[in-house]
Known about the structure:
The protein is mostly helical. It has helices at residues 4-21, 25-32, 37-54, 60-80, 84-100.
Amino acid sequence: xxxxxxxxxxxxxxxxxxxxxxxxxxxxxxxxxxxxxxxxxxxxxxxxxxxxxxxxxxxxxxxxxxxxxxxxxxxxxxxxxxxxxxxxxxxxxxxxxxxxx
Length: 101
C-alpha cells in the first residue's frame, strides 16, 4: 500500500504534463466536451500539481482533494456528453484520488 498513492500520483502528474506540453489530441477531446483550451490547461495544471502532491505523504490528502475535484468536474462533463469510455477512466482516477484523501 505504501507505493500505491505515490504511483497513482505520478501517473496523474504525467497525464497532466502530457495535456500541458505534449499530446495535442487532448485539445480535441476537451473541445468535444465544450471546454476551451484554457479550461484544458487549468485541468492539466491541477492534475500535474495534485498528482505531485499525492506522491508525498504530508501533501497526499490535499493533492487527492485537488485531483478528485478537477476529476469530478471533467467526469460530469463526460457523462453529460455520453462519453462512457472517457468517463470510466476518469471515474477510476477520481476514486483513487478520493482514496488518497
